[in-house]
TrEMBL record, chains A, B:
Name of the protein in question: histidinol-phosphate transaminase
GO MF annotation terms: histidinol-phosphate transaminase activity; pyridoxal phosphate binding
Lineage: Bacteria, Pseudomonadati, Pseudomonadota, Alphaproteobacteria, Rhodobacterales
EC number: 2.6.1.9
CDD domains: AAT_like
The species this protein was found in: Cereibacter ovatus
Amino acid sequence: MIGPRYTPLAASLPATVPFVGPETQERARGRLFRARLGANESLFGPSPRAVAAMTLAASDVWMYGDPEIHELRAAIAADHGVAPANVTVGEGIDGLLGCLVRLLVAPGDPVVTSDGAYPTFGFHVAGFGGVLHKVPYRGPHEDPEALVDMARKVGAKLVYLANPDNPMGSHHPAATVLAMIEALPPGTLLVLDEAYVELAPEGTAPKIAAEDPRVIRFRTFSKAHGMAGLRVGYAIAAAPLIAAFDKVRNHFGVGRIAQAGALAALADRDWLAEVQTQVALSREGIAAIARGCGLVPLPSATNFVTIDCGGDGTFARAVLKALIDRDIFVRMPFVAPHDRCIRVSCGRAAELDAFAQALPEALAAASAGGGV
Amino acid sequence: MIGPRYTPLAASLPATVPFVGPETQERARGRLFRARLGANESLFGPSPRAVAAMTLAASDVWMYGDPEIHELRAAIAADHGVAPANVTVGEGIDGLLGCLVRLLVAPGDPVVTSDGAYPTFGFHVAGFGGVLHKVPYRGPHEDPEALVDMARKVGAKLVYLANPDNPMGSHHPAATVLAMIEALPPGTLLVLDEAYVELAPEGTAPKIAAEDPRVIRFRTFSKAHGMAGLRVGYAIAAAPLIAAFDKVRNHFGVGRIAQAGALAALADRDWLAEVQTQVALSREGIAAIARGCGLVPLPSATNFVTIDCGGDGTFARAVLKALIDRDIFVRMPFVAPHDRCIRVSCGRAAELDAFAQALPEALAAASAGGGV
């Protein structure tokens, strides 16, 4: 009996998982984490109004969600001053990025990103056979000029920019992004990932005309809205590009609870403001803990703080391991020179206390040779 | 400014939506449906234990779901007597079908299905450039011999069989499916869609060895488990094929509430038994209503009854329209000769009463010339 005949592309792909979940680590360790600070989830939780809406929707879950996602798209459109035809909603930014790449990238097509930027974007590009060209960061920032230069050089169909950036927490002001859009070569689409932008300083999100064909921006309910486990993200772009998503998307993929929760979260501006305040305080707290240990916290426009451990990647990996051994779930950038850092998500007092307790021990353990 | 450069395949695709949701119709009509009997949802609702689990999970939704979906996969594996490595979970059968087609179907690759079978499968095949070869039903049944013959003739990579069948409600006994598997040409994978199988007679689901490389079976929490709006389906197949899904799936796509709800539903055998009882009663009720109007209800192994309206497609479409005009949401098969039928989902007494009231009026209206 012979097995399935995969496409040549599928046969060539590794069974990569872009991220290992903390649950996988907990199962391997046989012990739960004390502080879940590795996945840039919002430990401040979802809006109570969103929880109420999801609870109500749980009993209605026998019904498929509206495949047009009409109410949520209308609310998002109103929030952004665009038309519903400029908005599509999908299973997180991850799911939407997959659709976008599928629409534009055939085997061999060039795509540009930064070396060390969000790996799931690269996962999708590889998954559709695209060729990823990477440019280095400039310090802790993605480098818009280098991205545009590379896009021009290789004729990129897509160029990816996260603003604010993950994993570094840095950001560019709106004017820099607008200048990047103006400099794009013809036929290169800017993939502007704004997953963290609600947590960035005023003036980070550029004003972009709804029908500008040069850019598609992505937002999510996973970060500031505290609903990573709900899987709702959205894209804003020119209507023809948004309509193209209907060619390939999983039309019932955003379910009934997801639509209800996101709609309620979007309406709860007080909760968002509260989270913004708590995140700002928590960033200060993490930075103070880092400084207290003689480390350098990088400025953050997100719900995490990237901390320069002051050594090389080997040292930072040892610190990370020692933190995990102490039941603190954190992650770190994959790529040098950023892999001198660890990345710590904002949390409440309890988690920050646990981190404050573990960090000096972890640094001592790492300095002593990487052991526990 | 030039826009995005789509792939030739994406540019060629229509922006088809396989199904129009009842919400879309309600918005167009400016009026809600009285009875939602068109989408084969379970009007008996989800397990109360699943509702409780989803409610609990709503507050935890700030956390990403486990990307390995470990607990749910383990529970499904135990339920089926296979290993967790034989199980993958995705965003409904729709989402899983999309991944499967992506793994196997490159532009021009042949795929076989029945003319009038589940359109979303065809949507995915077209979406990856596959060529769909269709064979007719034999009466109300999909025709396994014809499917296998066509698969051999065209060298199909995939052949699709829904057992029980949607939209006809018919089923084959397990032995027929097993014979079909034995007859498959080498290198053709059977896509066995068992979305409705929990509602079919004992002996419908065949026993298939976990590592049989010739077949992948799909199940869902959307039908008997009453959670269509949660978006959880699963596939059971040989471990190498299951592992291949990791190459392309949206790893965080099944969220925290979805995993919790499905796990609780799977454990609630009493609720499943109750739904099975209610569905059987409701099928009888729908059949009696149809017979009372002089129509012929087809035998059903699902949570819907397909009713032969006794005329041609034009007449059945007029009946459908007249039912919708009377606020009864039903659907019908798309393809002749099945489009002589309408398809009515099982419901509670209130919905069946509404249908019983509307059907004679709708038939009269259709007979009078298709008007209201």
